[in-house]
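$ run holo --ligand "iron/sulfur cluster" --emit tokens
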Amino acid sequence: MSLVHETDYGTPASKSSEMVTLTIDGQSVTVPAGTSIMRAAMDIGTQVPKLCATDSVDAFGSCRLCLVEIQGRPGTPASCTTPVGSGMVVSTQTERLKQIRKGVMELYISDHPLDCLTCAANGDCELQDMAGAVGLRDVRYGYDGENHTKQAKDESNPYFTFDPSKCIVCSRCVRACEEVQGTFALTIQGRGFDSKVSAGMDEPFVESECVSCGACVQACPTATLSEKSVIDIGVPEHSVVTTCAYCGVGCSFKAEMRGEELVRMVPYKDGKANRGHSCVKGRFAWGYANHRERILKPMIRETIDQPWREVTWEVAIERVASEFKRLQAKYGRLAIGGITSSRCTNEETYLVQKLVRGGFGNNNVDTCARVCHSPTGYGLRTAFGTSAGTQDFDSVEHTDVVLIIGANPTDAHPVFASRMKKRLRQGAKLIVIDPRRIDMVRMPHIEAQYHLPLRPGTNAAMLNAIAHVIVTEGLVNEKFVRDYCDLSAFEHWASFVSEPQNSPETVGLVTGVSAEAIRGAARLYASGKNSAIYYGLGVTEHSQGTTAVMALANLAMATGNLGREGVGVNPLRGQNNVQGSCDMGSFPHELSGYRHISDDATRTMFEKLWGRPLDAEPGLRIPNMFDAAIDGTFKGIYVQGEDILQSDPNTKHVRAALAAMECVVVQDLFLNETANYAHVFLPGSTFLEKDGTFTNAERRINRVRKVMTPKNGLADWEITLAIAKAMGFEMPYSHPSEIMDEIAHLTPTFAGVSFDLLDKVGSVQWPCNEKAPLGTPVMHIGGFARGKGNFMITEYVPTDEKVGPRFPLLLTTGRILSQYNVGAQTRRTDNVVWHEQDVLEIHPHDAEERGVRDGDWVKIDSRAGGTALHAKITDRVAPGVVYTTFHHPDTQANVVTTDYSDWATNCPEYKVTAVQVSPSNGPSDWQREYNEQAEHSRRIAKVAAE
Ligand code: SF4
Ligand code: SF4
Ligand code: SF4
Ligand code: FES
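-- output --
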């Protein structure tokens, strides 16, 4: 194995379809018009020396190293900024050019510390490479005059340093921050000799607007911007391409290693989801894999008040199997079940549902998608026939109007947000529908044309009002509807949305948004040449989550915004493999590929291959499992990679359910909150320690590759295999690729997928089968998967969760960039410097009414429970609305959320809780108790780890 090196073509590719032929160094080359001479030269294998150019950003032409001669033209133009011309005759290497380049390099090196041998970038430095490339052998000027070699380093960022003494002011970092990331945190300050790179208003990086995406570090050709891990460990010597295990963007990375030690994660340019970009989590926040609190040995205990006892894998697996068998013998076949993880691979998820269906003999399997995107599956399947988003991420490059609803891409899907921001800077228009003024509403060089700050819980009403404008103002794309949709369903729907109760004027009273703004946004969406909808949990986690997903599908169909690039209905999936866990048959009523368990033909196929009879009756969903546990009929659960106590609503209820079970088996990296109620703890493996695949928000199946041996001894898939075997249900796999082969064999949409194919082409988007051997980037081209597009009636039904005198405010929740979900991983990395605690955002008016000052402790109470946290006074939230994140277990927003849920899928209504906020002296009683318990668990974990 060696380091994977990707070619740097110097300048971005031209997208022109016109071709131009020219001659470079005597060779003829044909490239798209608009290509730089530098890039065209790469096509014939000639690398023109360069420093300020790199192919992730537009050329700038400042270093003067890439000069060429063009026949018939005076001077020596820069090849990075000069586009090719038909018939051009170019020389890249002449005596004159050689002398100029040497002179340029000599000047750079004369103001550069000559500490190459001890520099962290030795062997990985373009300045060093270029000195060699131009044949620089000696530097005539010393350090006597003024120079920059003694400047102080900025080490404020936890992950990278900025050493200005090594800076050549090439501005690659500045351009990467602007063009790739879209944050505009860096500038070149001053002029001439005094020019220097500065973060924010000449602040330390960590205090500036910098979001630590790493794009500048990536772009820097010198050691000026360097990862601290490289400085500590040394330059990596081999790399493995794998997939980030955080969010649903599914970025590809090169895990760069020294032996079995991970040195850095470098975004992979050929990764089709991220195109070489990253965010702070995937790029830097991988230290949790080595965190001292990680549990590496299996543990058991008889009752949950006993201390844990470390045991061998054999003993732990035997305990799981014998307990589950005992429970089934005593309470019946249906008394146990399992929960699959959206953090684990497709193969691991598939195995857990196979264990439950084939080994436990029931369908009591569910997944954490229950609490996030289950309405997406149901809603999109009903409308279009497929339970997934319609586009690939590249599609946004063709979008003219972006509609974001209930999503906060810059925090939750940052790499895709950067691509979206780029398109918006190019002129696409933006509509944001969100109770909170998310960053996308206004940021450098971007301003939403419409921000509709609706009251939480009124999405369906708002979308009906937008539909009302589209139908009553004649904005329907009649040809699309006629050609591709069920006409009678359309007519029924059109007459429903035209009713006066759906007019913007009436709906405005419900949503709190002016009719004028609703009408304007509707017209903009309907009139865009290509309009695309992007949505998140702010749509799904409601009592009408499924209704709102269907309403979005209705809008896209009515305006003809489906079936081509630039359009579509796109769920921004939260977790790395939430799409995959749904695809793999994790729901109690569905086998892989969303086929109902009651379908005899499908079931028989699985029965034959697995050699087990399968129950035709759907099993219990997660909330039903909890209810059954409290009723005394559900007694044992296998939870793989999911902290249900912290992530499911109404914590009190979940705690009671777990306490009522006789065998709770938790498989995870850390002793999570659920583990406090567990009898067996099986240490899990990280994404770095196993092979498999993740499926991202665009249905892209990407390889996860093992870069090190599992520290706990077994990868997660091997643990499930061992449990199955101990329960007498042997599964015949020696590698995850064989599990994928079985999935492909049994699942029509995966029929063409194999590890071999993925290794060959990088990644594919399902459906991938005979009809689409390389996958399907855009769905529903020339017709819907279900036949005709189905318009559904989406009547607005207000949630039962109502504000009143006791609970007058509405709480809604979300994420922050540096943290991830319940924070189990990111809280165990240096990312905590950006978010040490969850805070409550409250509008100045509501704060003043309650005598709350910025930073005060406040109590927040709902019908379900209460917690306390610090207040942050801000007008990002409207009066009457408060907001918090849910990353820290000592505040646990879900203590407050209720167990109201989506009518179709039971997805909890996390986004609307009626609450009261009042001043407080500090943490509430349960929080104090929790903190003591957590400290106790940490001590146990430490002892166990030692
Ligand atoms: S890390 Fe990202 S956001 Fe920060 S300065 Fe570099 S490019 Fe800009
Ligand atoms: S920090 Fe690096 S990328 Fe930025 S100007 Fe200096 S040398 Fe160039
Ligand atoms: S955007 Fe998501 S997938 Fe990409 S690096 Fe960040 S967390 Fe990982
Ligand atoms: S690489 Fe062309 S001017 Fe610097």
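-- notes --
DSSP finds 29 helices and 36 strands in the chain.
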